[in-house]
């Protein structure tokens, strides 16, 4: 029998008396993150001379959450910001002398919330700046263009300021409908949020918005305030906006021509008050029509496309068109995802190759674009979509959820480095 205590004295001490507990009156960065277990953690911090001058937290979780949050603040306090961004779950666990295996996830939640608060601070500093004061000399939003009225110029600057608050814009595209593009967009956004990122999910599928249904937000409507249109918030770090929130009922059809589509997408990008985000995931309708074109023209850099396909030849041929669309509009391809790639047997968990497999990977190689991974068919994905629960939240250990989180790791690795 092991004589090792289940909980170390360092951890136990912080179960009841966590350090740095409670909000800060004055802060530069704040984040609230809900972990897969349902516990929520909140961090506040002040940064001075590139160091974490003060940091605090609260949580609605139990002892291990308090210990993990406390240790994350203790490890971060006084450090250079770029060093604090390198604190990992293992560092918190080591400093605590370990946590019971079923509570180790609390240390990940603590580290993710700490980093989200640091990024919040960095983004606020970078982007509350008006275009005129921004150091990026070559940005086209600094100067009024010859054919532009004063009003159009101001309008363009507002759009630029909104987009500048977003670390990376990801346009999710597919050659045709039914390949799981919206499902992938919803699950990428949820998986990025679970990884502690501040995420926006924008549904510009004007003719068939499915994000409200997939996220369980069908009854939500958008409300405007002084700062713009308020997105619907889920779990503290995921914000959602869909054209579906403007329709009286899910059965309503929208008949808009090209310029109207451009204008509504522009309005969404300009007027939605996303605040600082690490990622904005944009679900565009299938094909290479007005909506993806409008988005690609308006979002600015850094941005990239994620191309979703199924393994069959017909779907793959469509992806070629998407790759050439991206080349034409100078949108880098972040990578290809092969969805519905094999079937996970609900009885034994083994993989059945229902369609052929690997077409997406071959195509990615042929077109010289990255391949991000394959997501198998999983009947639970359909059930989750129908009941409005993001799949990645509920089935964290399943093959499809594991595939999503491996894809998210690659997307995060591809994204621009954090500012120091
Ligand atoms: P698209 O946006 O490409 O039209 P959707 O995301 O709406 O496609 O997905 C179409 C249908 O396929 C939905 O019912 C969805 O639940 C289902 N689906 C998508 N991906 C998977 C998957 N990997 N396994 C099982 N069903 C899936």
Can you describe what's shown?
- With 420 residues, this protein is α/β, with parallel strands linked by helices.
- 40% of the residues lie in helices and 21% in strands.
- It has helices spanning 9-16, 63-76, 81-84, 89-96, 105-127, 150-164, 181-194, 211-214, 258-271, 290-298, 313-328, 359-367, 379-387, 391-394, 399-414; strands at 29-34, 40-48, 51-59, 166-174, 199-203, 223-225, 228-230, 232-234, 238-242, 277-283, 303-309, 333-344, 351-352, 371-377.
- Strands 4, 5, 8, 9, 10, 11, 12, 13 and 14 form a nine-stranded mixed sheet that branches. Strands 1-2-3 form a three-stranded antiparallel sheet. Strands 6-7 form a two-stranded antiparallel sheet.
- A hairpin with a 2-residue loop joins strand 2 (40-48) and strand 3 (51-59).
- The protein binds adenosine-5'-diphosphate.
Task: Give the topology, please.
Blueprint: H1 9-16, E1 29-34, E2 40-48, E3 51-59, H2 63-76, H3 81-84, H4 89-96, H5 105-127, H6 150-164, E4 166-174, H7 181-194, E5 199-203, H8 211-214, E6 223-225, E7 228-230, E8 232-234, E9 238-242, H9 258-271, E10 277-283, H10 290-298, E11 303-309, H11 313-328, E12 333-344, E13 351-352, H12 359-367, E14 371-377, H13 379-387, H14 391-394, H15 399-414
Parallel strand pairs: 4-10, 4-11, 5-9, 5-10, 11-12, 12-14
Antiparallel strand pairs: 1-2, 2-3, 6-7, 8-9, 12-13
This protein binds adenosine-5'-diphosphate (ADP).
Adenosine-5'-diphosphate binds next to α7, β12, β14 and α13.
């Amino acid at each position: 029998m092991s004589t090792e205590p289940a909980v170390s004295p360092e951890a136990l001490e912080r179960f009841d008396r966590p350090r740095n507990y409670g909000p800060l009156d004055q802060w530069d960065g704040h984040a609230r993150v809900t972990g897969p277990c349902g516990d929520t953690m909140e961090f506040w911090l002040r940064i001075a001379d590139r160091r974490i001058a003060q940091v605090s937290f609260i949580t609605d979780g139990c002892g291990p959450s308090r210990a993990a949050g406390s240790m994350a603040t203790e490890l971060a306090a006084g450090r250079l910001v770029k060093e604090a961004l390198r604190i990992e779950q293992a560092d918190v666990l080591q400093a605590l002398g370990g946590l019971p295996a079923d509570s180790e996830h609390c240390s990940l939640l603590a580290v993710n919330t700490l980093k989200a608060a640091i990024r919040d601070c960095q983004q606020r500093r970078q982007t509350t700046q008006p275009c005129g004061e921004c150091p990026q000399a070559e940005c086209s939003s600094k100067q009024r263009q010859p054919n532009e009225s004063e009003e159009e110029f101001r309008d363009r600057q507002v759009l630029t300021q909104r987009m500048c608050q977003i670390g990376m814009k990801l346009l999710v595209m597919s050659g045709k409908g039914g390949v799981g593009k919206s499902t992938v967009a919803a699950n990428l956004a949820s998986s990025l949020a679970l990884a502690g990122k501040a995420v926006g999910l924008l549904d510009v599928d004007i003719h068939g918005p499915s994000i409200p249904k997939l996220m369980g937000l069908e009854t939500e409507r958008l409300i405007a305030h002084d700062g713009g249109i308020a997105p619907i918030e889920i779990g503290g770090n995921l914000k959602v906006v869909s054209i579906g929130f403007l329709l009286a009922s899910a059965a309503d059809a929208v008949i808009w021509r090209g310029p109207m589509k451009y204008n509504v997408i522009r309005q969404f990008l300009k007027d939605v008050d996303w605040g600082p985000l690490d990622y904005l995931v944009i679900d565009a309708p299938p094909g290479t029509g007005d909506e993806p074109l409008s988005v690609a023209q308006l979002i600015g850099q850094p941005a990239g496309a994620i191309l979703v396909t199924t393994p069959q030849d017909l779907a793959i041929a469509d992806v070629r068109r998407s790759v050439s669309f991206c080349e034409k509009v100078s949108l880098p391809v972040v990578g290809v995802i092969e969805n519905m790639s094999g079937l996970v047997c609900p009885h034994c968990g083994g993989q059945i190759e229902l369609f052929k497999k690997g077409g997406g990977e071959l195509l990615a190689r042929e077109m010289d674009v990255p391949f991000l991974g394959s997501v198998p068919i999983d009947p639970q994905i359909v059930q989750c979509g129908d009941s409005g629960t993001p799949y990645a939240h509920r089935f964290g250990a399943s093959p499809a959820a594991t595939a999503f989180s491996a894809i998210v790791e690659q997307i995060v690795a591809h994204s621009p480095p954090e500012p120091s």
